[in-house]
Amino acid sequence: MERKPVVVLAENDYRYGTGPVRLRVERVEHAEEVVLDGEPWLPVHGTRLRGDGTERGAVRLLVRAARLSPAVPGGQPGPGGGAPRPPGRMAR
């Protein structure tokens, strides 16, 4: 069984919620990258975890791309953290 990476995100590293989030990352959607305040952000699907590691439920969060390490599948493949966009694709 493949182990999915777990990240702990500070409140300012994801939109929109309050407090830190512990997340087991299932999928990163590079094709849906958005730019907010000049920085790339990526939709991330995963499972929210309690401090003891038990599951709280599935979640989709908008996460600052720079916060996703290369250890996260799909995290930071291109310069600046986001995935390279196909030719002609504009950041939103």
Characterize the structure shown.
The protein is mostly beta strands. It is built from no helices and six strands. Strands 1, 2, 3, 4, 5 and 6 form a six-stranded antiparallel beta sheet that branches.
Question: What brief labels describe this structure?
Answer:
mainly beta, about 40% strand, disordered C terminus, six-stranded antiparallel beta sheet
The N- to C-terminal Cα distance equals 36 Å
Largest sheet report:
6 strands, antiparallel
What structural class results from the helix and strand content?
mainly beta
- In sequence order, what are the helices and strands, one letter per element? EEEEEE
Overall shape: it is globular
Give the radius of gyration: 13 Å
Strand content: 35-45%
Give me the number of helical elements: 0
Identify low-pLDDT runs: 76-92
How many distinct beta strands? 6
Global mean pLDDT: 81
- The amount of helix comes to under 10%
List the helices and strands and how they pair.
Layout: E1 6-9, E2 14-15, E3 21-28, E4 34-36, E5 39-49, E6 55-64
Antiparallel strand pairs: 1-3, 2-6, 3-5, 4-5, 5-6
Brief characterization of the structure:
With 92 residues, the chain is mainly beta. It has no helices and 6 strands.
